[in-house]
Amino acid sequence: MHFGTFLRNKYAMVSLAILTGLLIGLGMVMFLNPPTLANVEHPYIAPSLVQPQTTTANSLNSNSLTTSSPHPAATTISPAKGSPIVVENQQPGSGQWQIGLPGFRIADDSAQQIKGYASATSVDKGQPISFYVTVNPAQSYTIDVYRIGWYGGTGGRLLQHLGPFEGVSHPPCPVDSTTGLTACDWAGSYTLTVPDTWTSGIFMAVLTNNQKYQNYIIFVVRDDARKADLLYQQSVTTYQANNNYPNDTTTGKSLNDYNSYGSNTMAGGPRAVKVSFDRPYKDNGSGDFLRWEVNFVRWLERGGYDVSYSTDLDTHSHGARLRNYKGFLSVGHDAYWSAEMRTAVEQARDAGVHYASSALTPRIGTSGSSRRRAAWLIA
User: At the N or C end, where does the chain have fewer CB atoms within 10 A?
Assistant: First the structure.
């Protein structure tokens, strides 16, 4: 899907230590207090060291979530004992979803020891999603697919081990000299058909090559057929806007000046005016998820809330689905919205759906097919 026109303007970043869902002009503020990190030695996150904090009485009453809106009656959303999230988090977890643990190293964008991306940002249960992987030098690799949640504090659960596969080294992804667009066209490495038994959530595919270098491919598994209490929106448009893969201080470009390199584009500087989802995320491959969103997801699932997951591209393309839920959550640094996304949220609000968001200002437009996805920025 050709993905949107990004309009540059200033925005406030939202701390996950205290999530504030501020809905500008739409009549609702909802406060949540997810866990914070303490004494973390791992460069990204150590799940066993993340301890949930007790929330304040005016934000959560015990473990119930109370929201307000322009509608006369408030809605209270409480943990659901029999929800798929509760059942899922009773399964044995594993901290091995973290990359760079002892005995392993995190691949970088310069050497490209192992990097990858997916054919889509989300996939419904029972449907296929393809992975595109490069290794340097050519060697075997494996893929371990983890679902992120609470799982007794371990933070993830291994759902499937794939491989080993014989990897190939792909050439550098071409850069358009005018727009700065970096779009890879790698051959597909593996297609996963998501089992119907998997619970909706945020999934991280851990890529590990024979030399023990690792990287992530991140994607959402949806459950379009089920109506949950809450819908969580992953902020992949913002991930891609900030993505300067390859972050090699030489050629990588995002939609920002501060982390773009190489020759000037039509913008008058090195930044791109167009970026593509057909490329890995920079550095460890997780986008902005481990920086802005992971702790909130862990907090939700530890609390047992009945939540289903999607991305903002899903909100853009299938906004009517928001009306299947009692509440809609846009958390972290969710900065890039299309007019269609905003309209979908407003229509859901008018239908009685409560929501929390950090920004609803339209900045992007979308067009094109579901396979080729790009985003462009105008000054």
Answer: C
